[in-house]
Amino acid sequence: MCGVAGVLAGPRAEPAGLDELKRMIAMIGHRGPDGYGFYRDGRIGLAHARLSIVGLAGGFQPIHNEERTLWITFNGEIFNHVELRRDLEARGHRFYTRTDTEVVVHAFEEYGPAAWAKLNGQFAIGLWDAAKRELWLVRDRLGILPLFYARSGDHLAFASEAKALFGGGRIEPRFDAARLAQVFTHWSVAPQGSVFAGVQSVPPATAIRIDADLRLHEARYWEPDMAGDPALSRLTLDEAADRLEEKLLDAIRLRLRADVPVGVYISGGLDSSVIAALARKLDTTQMHSFGVRFADTAFDETPQQRLVANHVGTEHHDILCGAEDIQAALPDVIWHGESPLVRTAPAPLFLLSRLVRDSGIRVVLSGEGADEWLAGYDIFKEDKVRRFWARQPHSTARPKLLSRIHPYAAANGQKDSPLWQAFWKRGMAETDDPFYAHRIRWQNTAWTQRLLAADVRSAANAQAFDQAVAAHLPAGWSRWSPLARTQWTEIAAFMSPYLLTSQGDRVAMAHSIEVRYPFLDPEVDDLCAALPDRVKMLGLRDKLALRRVASRLLPAEIFHRPKRPYRAPMTTALFGAQAPAYVQDLLSEESLNRYGLVDAAGVAALAAKAHRQDGRMAGEREEMALVGVLTLQMLARNVLDELPGRASSLRARLDAAPIHILEEHLDSAAA
């Protein structure tokens, strides 16, 4: 994948200078270390940082059509580019590269905006139509890759990461208090935004057309239909597994297309193990796999990872992640992620992507998406139990079903605790709430907002996130089953804005690693959406169709294994006797008051408690609150204090790198 940036000038404004474009793209050079390209005319400036995956010899961007009226800066991969190219050539299009990027240009030339729905891939597109003086900003169906934009007077700037907008000098880095509060409730901002004032995100499955007068026209080009296909309603479990395996094989086959080696992530869980096993069916040459081990055995899955690697026959590489590794990685994770975190989970994945790079691999397959599309998370079971309980709210037997989801509750007697049952009973009768399953979790996480400064808390708008997600609910959503509605909320409100960002693109591209997701292939997702609920979850048994596929490929220990959420040590890694020096620095009274984003007294009290207890906190909410505050302070220092110095250093690095394309047509698109 790559890094993209650009500036569109209004009809009476000066176009962006080359130096500004260089400053922007230098900030995201980690996304594309293989060279830089630029295009300028009287209205647009485009910049690109290239990571070579397909078409190694001639794929430097921006890329154009035959008449040089369309110019593109593109981040991502189009996995069906071979098939699209064949069709376009049959229609008379002539190509000058072997890249998937040029396929996008000709597809738009042939089909116009209908082209976006034809792309099977993960992408962020900036496409300039010089004839119409229109800029298109387009993002893939599920928001795998990022794309931000911001207005500044008579200019609109866009980039893969917000830091590129700031590096150009037009956009000032300022925090949006209301969106910061969203992170401390939902783990991320709503899909249309960022934590920075005025910096917007192109939503998933959306194309924004910016016309000659800088007016924005936004349209979704895809939405799911999870009502279920009547033609599939009678499928047996084996038949559903057959169809799922067939679609996954096709998705993996497409994602093995590359001019560089492709590896696989193996976590030890069901999803990545299935991907690894199917990939080996298609590719019998040497394949490398990668996993994270934890020094803390409470988080470690080493035996399962090695069992899978040995079973499918990969050359396995792993890292052992301890407290000191999380401490060392976290500042870089925040710089690349551009958001506070209420979890440390991205840090080990940052280290894992570095291992991939150091092993000489640029592309890896991941199992992300299976839990969302095939109902693997506990939240789907919680929803089912609470709806069942809501029919007889005074039942004492029905709430005990939750102990089958959370066995720790049965082990220590919590399931009979009035406090524990009261937690799950909150809002239980409000089954018409569009976010019924998620509301209880969001309310629980919102406790962390008490460590934010009073003016940040006062800016919090509990309805804003709901409204932003609801605005993009698909047609017919209200007629879906409760399971399907909860699945889509998990995809739209959590997977896209958090998992694919903080634990996906940002930590991987920090080391120029491209992660590909077979479970997020359009054909796989459309099948999963159409399958009946009973082959996803029956009673409280999850991912039935996928487990049946796994039973054909993997040891019983893996395909029978219950879902184990990926987690990493939090306050035990950052507080107490082993705390790194930056914790005391960032949480000092001086630093807390400098940025004014948190309640200094509340933070000091909770941090002191964490230090006294070597980071062992009474509850997860306290851990999340402290991690959130610490990483918010890191981010504030990054963008408010350190940005100019970093920008200067990165620009110097760009000046020493090759620039492969520099096209300037300063009169061709003047107003």
TrEMBL record:
CDD domains: Asn_synthase_B_C, AsnB. GO terms for molecular function: asparagine synthase (glutamine-hydrolyzing) activity. It holds the Pfam family Asn_synthase. Its EC number is 6.3.5.4. InterPro entries: Asn_synth_AEB, Asn_synthase, ASN_synthetase/amidase, AsnB_N, GATase_2_dom, Ntn_hydrolases_N, Rossmann-like_a/b/a_fold. PANTHER family: ASPARAGINE SYNTHETASE, ASPARAGINE SYNTHETASE (GLUTAMINE-HYDROLYZING). Belongs to the asparagine synthetase family. This is asparagine synthase (glutamine-hydrolyzing). The lineage of its organism: Bacteria, Pseudomonadati, Pseudomonadota, Alphaproteobacteria, Rhodospirillales.
